[in-house]
TrEMBL record:
<dbReference type="Pfam" id="PF13478">
    <property type="entry name" value="XdhC_C"/>
</dbReference>
<dbReference type="InterPro" id="IPR052698">
    <property type="entry name" value="MoCofactor_Util/Proc"/>
</dbReference>
<protein>
    <submittedName>
        <fullName>XdhC family protein</fullName>
    </submittedName>
</protein>
<dbReference type="InterPro" id="IPR027051">
    <property type="entry name" value="XdhC_Rossmann_dom"/>
</dbReference>
<feature type="domain" description="XdhC Rossmann">
    <location>
        <begin position="173"/>
        <end position="315"/>
    </location>
</feature>
<dbReference type="InterPro" id="IPR003777">
    <property type="entry name" value="XdhC_CoxI"/>
</dbReference>
<dbReference type="Pfam" id="PF02625">
    <property type="entry name" value="XdhC_CoxI"/>
</dbReference>
<feature type="domain" description="XdhC- CoxI">
    <location>
        <begin position="15"/>
        <end position="72"/>
    </location>
</feature>
Length: 355
């Protein structure tokens, strides 16, 4: 599954290029609990087709009803939406919050842009498809839009009569090895919005690959990492258990801005990997601090599917800036369990599962 924002903007562009009237809704403010974060977008076409989300569904239903009635002209009181962007709030009262399915006390405000320019949308979508981070600025007085490439992701801002929202290219995941664990992890990454590339020079593994939507390449892993050009929206994970394939790829990945670099393996294998990378590749201690392993969170996983859940959970936590408790790290949790096994009277707190 591709990045949701790119999907919304591409669909909106296609509608507008086909001559359909449509609007773009953006969550610009929230108070209390909110089902969708600030910056979330959805697009609504004149025939009621919708892509994206600004709530759990009830607000979308209200917007669809209001605007399809207006576009159809069936109800005189509903005028065809047009002109400069406008604001609409949902959940202002307790009754409305209940009606629209908002959490208790939740309120959100949307900015509605009517009939966005298809050429500007096409420029934005093409930039995102080319892997560029794009800043979109909307002048509220008349809806004029300007675009420029951004150097870093930014939070949505609404001040001085302009809305600024930054859209990034897809998060990307490069997986080294095309085994069964990789198939589960690639599947989870795809439905989490990552673009997935799988590298394995071993033909017998590539030939058995069965996950649609992931790009599979057969070059040597270190060359693939170089060509991948990992950035702050990328992660690189080695899953082959073969140092000949994993180590060089990891060494190159540690030179990039990838937000997550890790490798499968036991605590002992992880220590041996560190020793090899220092001795043979002169990897610095600072770079090794970025190398995650054993990867995943400690949930008692044993099967490939459960281990993939464990890894994906850690990747998403790092992506979202969440610091996990140390006792959820695989190595730390296993060390604590070893202490407890050797001394049944030892107090081990916070260990809820194992892998």
């Amino acid at each position: 599954m591709e990045n949701l924002d790119v999907m919304v903007l591409r669909t909106l562009r296609d509608w507008r290029q086909a001559g359909k009237r449509a609007l773009l809704a953006t969550v610009v403010r929230t108070w209390g609990s909110s089902p969708r974060p600030i910056g979330s977008i959805m697009a609504l076409a004149e025939d009621g087709a919708v892509v994206g989300s600004v709530s759990g569904g009830c607000i979308e239903d209200d917007l669809i009803y209001r605007h399809t009635q207006a576009y159809s002209g069936k109800e005189p009181g509903h005028q065809i939406p047009s002109g400069p962007p406008s604001f609409v709030k949902y959940g202002v009262t307790a009754d409305e919050a209940h009606r629209f399915g908002l959490p208790c006390g939740g309120t959100l405000e949307l900015l509605l842009e009517y009939d966005p320019d298809p050429d500007t949308l096409d420029h934005l979508v093409r930039g995102l498809e080319a892997g560029r981070l794009m800043r979109r600025t909307v002048r509220l007085a008349d809806g004029a839009v300007s675009l420029e490439e951004a150097a870093a992701p930014e939070e949505l801002s609404l001040a001085g009569g302009v809305l600024v929202n930054t859209f990034g290219p897809e998060y990307r995941m490069l997986l080294i090895g095309a085994g069964q664990l990789t198939e589960y992890l690639a599947t989870m990454a795809l439905f989490s919005g990552f673009a997935v590339t799988v590298c394995d020079p071993r033909e017998e593994y590539r030939g058995a690959w069965s996950v649609a939507g992931a790009q599979v390449v057969g070059d040597m892993p270190d060359d693939v990492v170089l060509a991948f050009r990992a950035d702050r929206r990328s992660c690189v994970i080695a899953l082959t258990h073969d140092p000949k394939l994993d180590d060089l790829a990891l060494m190159e990945a540690l030179k990039t801005d990838a937000f997550y670099v890790g490798a499968i393996g036991s605590r002992r294998n992880n220590e041996a990997r560190h020793e090899r990378m220092v001795e043979h590749f002169a990897v610095s201690a600072a770079d090794l601090q970025r190398l995650r392993g054993p990867i995943g969170i400690y949930i008692g996983s044993k099967t490939p599917a459960e281990i993939a859940v464990s890894i994906m959970a850690e990747v998403l936590a790092v992506k979202n800036g969440v610091t996990l408790p140390r006792d959820m790290e695989v190595a730390q949790a296993k060390n604590l369990r070893a202490v407890q096994a050797n001394d049944p009277g030892a107090l081990v707190c916070g260990v809820a599962g194992a892998r």
